[in-house]
Amino acid sequence: MMKTLDDLLLLGDPRLYSVCEPVLESELPLVKNWVADLHNVMQEIRDKYQFGRAIAAPQLGIMKRLIYMNIDKPVVFINPELTDLSGEMFELWDDCMSFPNLLVKVSRHKSLTIHYLDENWTPQEWAIEGDLSELLQHEYDHLDGILCTMRAIDQHSFKWRPTP
After folding, report:
1. What confidence tens digit (pLDDT) does each residue in 105-124 have?
2. Superfamily of domain 5-160 in the CATH hierarchy
3. Rounded mean pLDDT of 131-145?
4. Domain residue ranges in the chain
5. Element (H, E) at 75
6. What is the distance between the alpha carbons of residues 163 and 49, in angstroms, rounded to a whole number?
């Protein structure tokens, strides 16, 4: 049964603070359904809140190292690893589907390289910077049980999202 917005884990759910297990090659047939669920819920978030470029599997209770991003086209990141994190940082107001009305000011690396397996289990590498670097750091943190609330710059780094 297709997962919906009602299946999205919200801030405070203990599963959001868990470290995810790697996707096994034997689980590759399951990835297509997981990605369909991630896509569906991300689309519902976009329709309801007008944001959402990527989502991590644990946000739907799928405790696997899997990220789905869809900006210009869908990209599936299986068992991603981040390397070459730049020393140069930048600050921004981060948002999260698991607490859609809260913004958190965080500091992120300006650039990085992500190594991952695609949906065909083919190794991939992508050097990225700027807003995509921030986005993938945010989603990668979900795989390690880290929320952006835990990366807040200070106790004043929280605000409510302005209503459209």
Report:
1. 999 999 999 999 999 999 99
2. Peptide deformylase (3.90.45.10)
3. 97
4. 5-160
5. strand 74-83
6. 9
> Is the pTM for the entire model greater than 0.90?
yes
Inform me whether the pLDDT recorded for 52 exceeds 70: yes
pLDDT band (50, 70, 90) for residue 164: low
- In the sheet that holds 89-94, the strands lie side by side as 89-94, 102-109, 158-160
Residues with active-site annotation: 139
Task: Quickly list DSSP for 25-40.
Answer: GGGHHHHHHHHHHHHH
Q: CB burial class (10 A; 0-12, 13-18, 19+) of residue 34?
A: buried
The position carrying tokens 């607490």 is 99
Q: Which amino acid is at 74?
A: P
Q: Could you tell me which residues are beta bridge partners of residue 81?
A: 115
Take residue 82 and report the two structure tokens written for it.
């981040």
